[in-house]
Write a structure and sequence with these properties.
Blueprint lengths: L1 E6 L3 E3 L4 E9 L6 E7 L6 E6 L5 E3 L7 E6 L4 E6 L8 E8 L6 H4 L8 E2 L3 E6 L1
Parallel strand pairs: 2-11
Antiparallel strand pairs: 1-3, 3-8, 4-5, 4-9, 5-6, 7-8, 9-10, 9-11
């Protein structure tokens, strides 16, 4: 079992910055592919950034060069650093993990249905 708890969501103004955290607890698995997904009201949940157990990453085009995903394997925390935020970044952000997903980070970015474990989400609101 993998338990994920997100935090760090907030309301910020455009061009501001925010860092999301996802606390990861697993008593079984040591190698996980992990990602951040987001869902805006009335829209599908989409991939934002994914990092695999070896540290390879992939980003959605809309956030490339603005967001950075990282995984602190000592503290067991997944981060999403977000810079130059835009109103269109407003969404509920979810942390996801899977121990068996045999996909590259780029493939996993578009495979939300294949992730077995999800957090409860944290809201990010960006005002113009």
């Amino acid at each position: 079992v993998v338990t994920l708890v997100e935090s760090g969501g907030n309301s910020v103004e455009a061009v501001g910055s925010l860092t999301l955290s996802c606390s990861v607890s697993s008593n079984t698995y040591t190698r996980l592919i992990m990602g951040w997904f987001r869902q805006a009201p009335g829209k599908l949940r989409v991939g934002v950034a994914v990092i695999d157990a070896d540290g390879s990453v992939a980003y959605a085009e809309s956030v490339k060069d603005r967001f950075t995903i990282s995984n602190d394997t000592v503290k067991n925390i997944l981060y999403l650093q977000m810079y130059n935020l835009k109103p269109e970044d407003t969404a509920m952000y979810y942390c996801a993990a899977d121990p068996f997903l045999a996909l590259t980070p780029s493939q996993a970015l578009h495979s939300r249905g294949d992730f077995d474990y999800w957090g409860q989400g944290t809201q990010v609101t960006v005002s113009s």
